[in-house]
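User: I'm putting together notes for a lab meeting next week and I want to include a structural view of one of the chains we've been expressing. I don't have a solved structure, so I'd like a prediction I can at least talk through. The sequence is below, exactly as it appears in our construct file.
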Amino acid sequence: MDPYDSGRVRYNHSPADAPRDPWRPAPPPPSPNPLPSFDAWQDEPSRGYGASGDGDGGGNEPPRRRRIRWGRWLVRGTAAGIVLFILAVIWLAVTAPLSQSLKPPTPPSITLTDAGGQPIARRGAIIGAPVDASTLPPHVREAFVAIEDRRFFSHWGIDPRGIARAAWHNMRGGGVREGGSTITQQLAKNAFLDSDRTAARKIREVAIAFWLEAWLSKNEILSRYLSNVYFGDNVYGLTAASQHYFGRRPQNLNVGQAAMLAGLVKAPSRLAPTGNLAGARKRQAVVIGAMEDAGFLTHREAEAVQPQRVLARTAQSVPTGTYFADWVLPSARDQAGEIRDETRVRTTLDRKLQATAERVIRQAGLKKAQAALVAMRLDGEVVAMVGGKSYADSAFNRATQAKRQPGSTFKLFVYLAAIRAGMTPASTVLDEPVEIAGWKPKNDDGRYLGEITLARAFARSSNVAAARLTQQVGVRQVIKAARDLGISTPIANEATIGLGTSEVSLLELTAAYAGIANGRYPVEAHGLRETAGNKGWFESLTGGQKTMPEEQRAAMLSLLSSSIRGTGRQAALSVPGYGKTGTSQSGRDAWFIGFAGDLVVGVWVGNDDNSPNPGLHGGGIPAQIWRNFMQSALDIQPVVKPVVVEENAIDPEAAIGNGDPVGDLIGGAVDQTADRLRDLGVDIRQSEDGSLIVGPAGSRGPPPSAREDRRAADEDEDGGGEE
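Assistant: Thanks for the context. Below is the predicted structure for the 723-residue chain, given as structure tokens.
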């Protein structure tokens, strides 16, 4: 007997009935529903083991059986993916061969056509040599990666986080304001696809991006991207851009220069530093901030980066360049998208009207002075543009690039502010000397008429009346009127602006006058035909324009019409015309801007060096150029009888001292005709009894003294004073 068994009771029962050994763990309880073996499943295929016992494979389906089913679907999905991949490879091999991305881009060119489809100018591109990203300084690579695709080295062609962020920002902004494309996607688009914004093109772009990631290394993708991306000024590739803007190789770019170039990729035409240095520098600062956020630069290094300067030169152009082509080319490139070969873009230029504009400028007898002309439809569609006497001698566009003092043409905004304040052309203003904060404007002819109507003040271009109106309605209201009509250049916050002391371009000022002619403002001057597809949904709904109240527009038309019968009488047409003269101090700038029919035309005459032109005024050569252009463009006959001058449109006392306005009017018409005949060698004059005396040039005796006084008054700064 085992000594350790003493005292134990033995039972002759089955083990299940025996008491549990306290030194052994308790066995698990029997399962109420034991699972059959795999053989049992095969023997009983219809037997169900779901929660409901109906054999539908519910939540209690055996794990092993579920694994078998999942395995089958995995095999099927893999097979389907392989088939789709093979089809995609075949599709891409046909539509976008990989070798295309391994070649340098085809030198792109763009051909501009007039409204009828006839070519007017052609531009080629500046193509740089390919670059190897691995040979570039780290900060050059990092600048592009930081601003264009921060997770470039970690994703497989697309960046879901970037796409989600862009979608959120676009949804909040009410339109497409930000893209989520990676550098790989941009290479796919540049190398293989056109610029249409369709869902099919985006899908192809994503597919090609995956394909490029599978075939090329990250360094190869970045190298090809940097070798053909557009940097503005018709420059393609990092090598060409580095040389064009900074005169150095990409390997020698500093941090600031690399950041500026990386910033241009977003909007190269708009941000090109040769035309928008301030915008390029702001974008450079954004890139530097992105480099700091990405950890490529420390805060101290980012703070040390200075705004960069660029070489003082413009993009190369071919001999077929014109003023209009230079102006419209950036917009044409934006509309055409990425250009890889020859692209044709139709503009708004009217070849016939352009020839007319060039002819009237050529025949104006400008001597050493320069001239510019802009003609547009009421909606801002530019149909003719002359930026100087000769593009071959000077490509500087005086219609778009030059900013000069507009003189009395700026009074349009003074009187518009007055009309908005409740005044009418029949309202009166005091034409007497005034002092405003130490400033004492004056009428150059020295005549002050006392209380006169707004129509009369506008017609004789009274300086003191304009100054009083500016003081009365407020400088801010005058500035607001200018801004509403589209003037974007800086305007001084002082009373002198009423006389046109703030500089503006001819194109912008002409577009402002188009706002009055059209009755909707602001009018944006453009050289490409707009389509609904070029506008976002929000802009399409709002239009961005306001309608001018009809009573305000009628009042402004009345004022502009009175000016044609006053200081602008040299611009008189045989059809209703509206306009305003302008002359800056000492005749440095002479303007005439007006409209008739469906055309709005602005003319400027002056010297490039801003030197004085004694005797030059807006009612002279500019008004004559405007009239000659309009007569040909509108196909109308010239005025063959004296212009009827309304009593309140021009001051009779400023014209003749005998108090006979009718006689003065007839005499003025005779003098104008005499001036033209004298150029042809014929002298004509009016005798004291009113008869006309005709003879050879040089035989004319001294005219009546009263007539001399009148002509002297008429030629003295348009009768009203400095414009």
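A couple of points you could mention at the meeting. The chain is about 40% helix and 10% strand. The chain has a mean pLDDT of 77.

User: Perfect, that's what I needed.
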